[in-house]
Amino acid sequence: MRKKVLNIVAIFIALFGIGFGIGCLISLISSKGSLADGEYKVTVCATTDVHGAFFDSSYVDNMANKTSLANVSSYLKELRGSGVNPILIDVGDNLQGDNAAYYYNYVATEEAHLLPRILAYLGYDAVVVGNHDVETGHDVYDRITRELQVPYLAANAALDRDENGKADMDEDPKNKLVSDSYFLPYCIIDRGGLKVAVIGMTNGNIKSWLSDSYWHGMDFQMIHDIAQQLIDKVVAKEHPQLVVLAVHSGTGTDLPDRENEALYLASTLDKVDLVFNGHDHRPLAKEVDNPHGSVVLLDEGTKAQYVGQADVTLKIKNGKRVERLVDYKLVPMEQYPVDSAYAAEFRPDFEAVKAYATRPIGMLSDNIFLADALDGPSSYINLVQTVQLGASGADISFAAPLSNSGVVPKGVVEFQDLVSIYRFENSLYVVGLTGQQIKDYLEYSYDNWVNRKGATYNWDSADGIIYEVSKSAPKGERVRILSMSDGTPFELDKTYKVAMTSYRASGGGDLLTQGAGVDPDSLVIYDKMKDIRSLVGDYIAEQGEVTPTVATNWKFVK
Question: According to the model, what pLDDT value does residue 59 have?
Fold first, then answer.
């Protein structure tokens, strides 16, 4: 029997890495007998939406970052020094948001990626896939899957199969062993004889934000559609003493929601003890009433602001769990110092990213104040529109403020400044829309804008047309399009080539679907171009010096 167990573990080590394989060995051994009666303690910690906050300082003047994984490292060392060996989970969105992520995603592709090395150093046990992780593309997250020494989880990223059951891409052998998902659906972690099941899910709304080139071969399911069934299967198969659901989904309400399901899941699911969530960048720690027993819900915000911690005490009698007590909290990382050993370990990476990020691209003759874009025409959005129209040759361009505070200072523009201008890795699409659909699209956008509803990155304006927006007019009657920018008539029944982001073309923000009434699956796509941030950089480099100017093609009127 011992030889058989060791052979199984050898297979798991080959497929998943040493850390996971050893965990399987411990699980196999501990599962041979039931737990002795008594009291058991386990601590589960989590981070989420780190968005590339890997270093303790910025790339300019070594200004200190408020929080980063360097602070998290200090906290974890203190915790482990006190005798606590926590189960450590990250709930997704690590591969976007900072030049460090960009550099290792797309530039230093022949080197070991920074993220798996950091997670190994910190001792993470499992990582959930976030929507912005998927946005980096197959080459990046497939590479992360290979390099991670712990499970990469997303049970609801199902393999897309045809009517004959054949997957739409080559299947990874490791997933054939355990599930029908592209990533691993769950893992079992042993702590002090306790079996803890960690089930991971990503955001079910990804297909509405990203074109299929990013997630080819997958079909994303709503978490609430499959969660209970999967939990039941895991509990029946693995017999864990504690069940943790880690979901890259916003908190939301106690009703099901495509993008923000966490509170609904915590308030309805059976056999779940802890729910760690993320995506909405809103720190939260609360105990949620549930018909099957209360569930603790923790969201750690973003950029390593907090570590969520649940200290669980379980009482076992006759081999079964008879009582569960949970103390939980969000631990602010700002109160912990930078771990000097961590900083030293990854200093070469910091220096490499800094050298890349501080490369001069061109010049700005004046400041660009990003917040100006919230109140009307601005030099910020005019720059983006100019780039999109010039690069695509489209008739009309749509763009929205992705950053709503800060300044890009006049003088030398460095590569890092491009993240302030365009912080997401959206690519540029050219699609076909009729004049009526364009007007309806803008009506929807300006209803958000005038009423200050939703995220500012859904407040699109247009270029290529001359128009005005009445703040006092009724909904649906605010936008009056006067002409094309060259003075020719704008025609409602004519089809125009429109430049927009991949996020928007996939239905993100609902401007295309609920505004223009267009199904993204039926959208005519003329061209797919590279990421807009790079296009902005190319434009500034080609111009040498850019003079920021405020758009004059549209205005707010009473």
Answer: 86
Instruction: Specify the pairing of strand 194-201 against strand 242-247.
Output: parallel
Which residues of the chain, if any, have pLDDT below 70? 1-33, 161-179
The confidence score (pLDDT) of residue 359 equals 92
Positive or negative: CA dihedral 304, 101, 156, 518:
positive
Burial class (CB in 10 A: 0-12, 13-18, 19+), 538: middle
pLDDT digits (tens, 9 = 90+) for 186-225: 999 999 889 999 999 999 999 888 888 889 999 999 999 9
Listed residue (278, 325, 326, 287) closest to 306, CA to CA: 278
Q: Which two tokens stand for residue 327?
A: 């103390």
Q: How far apart (Å, rounded) are the C-alpha atoms in residues 248 and 209?
A: 15
Inter-residue contact 224 to 277 (CB < 8 Å)? no
227 burial level (CB within 10 Å; 0-12, 13-18, 19+): buried
**What is d(CA 189, CA 116) in angstroms, rounded to the nearest whole number?**
19
Q: pLDDT by residue (tens digit) across 510-526?
A: 999 999 999 988 999 99
CA 529 to chain centre: 22
- Find residue 328's DSSP bridge partners: 310
- Residue 277's nearest CA partner among 257, 307, 297, 306 is 297
pLDDT of residue 485: 97
Question: What are the structure tokens assigned to 11, written together?
Answer: 């297979």
Spatial separation of the C-alpha atoms in residues 299 and 507, rounded to whole Å: 26
- Whole-number pLDDT of residue 353: 95
Write the pLDDT tens digit of every residue in 240-257: 999 999 999 999 998 988
Whether 481 and 465 have beta carbons less than 8 Å apart is answered as yes
State the Cα angle at 459 between 455 and 465, rounded to 5°.
170
548 Cβ neighbours under 8 A, 6+ residues apart: 364, 365, 366, 367, 368, 379, 380, 382, 383
pLDDT in tens, 281-309: 999 999 999 999 999 999 999 999 999 99
CA-based nearest residue to 554, from 369, 371, 364, 373: 373
* Rounded CA Rg of the chain: 25
108-141 burial, b if ≥16 CB within 10 A, otherwise e? eeeeebbbbbbbebbbbbbbbbbbbbbbbbeebb
In degrees, rounded to 5, the angle at the alpha carbon of residue 57 between the alpha carbons of residues 56 and 58 is 140
pLDDT of the residue at 179: 53
Q: Using CA atoms, how far apart are residues 498 and 29, in angstroms rounded to an integer?
A: 60
Residues in Cβ contact with 396 at an 8 Å cutoff, skipping those fewer than 6 apart: 433, 438, 462, 463, 464, 465, 496, 497, 498, 499
Dist CA 99 CA 356 (whole Å): 9
At how many degrees (to 10) do helices 114-122 and 69-81 cross?
A: 20
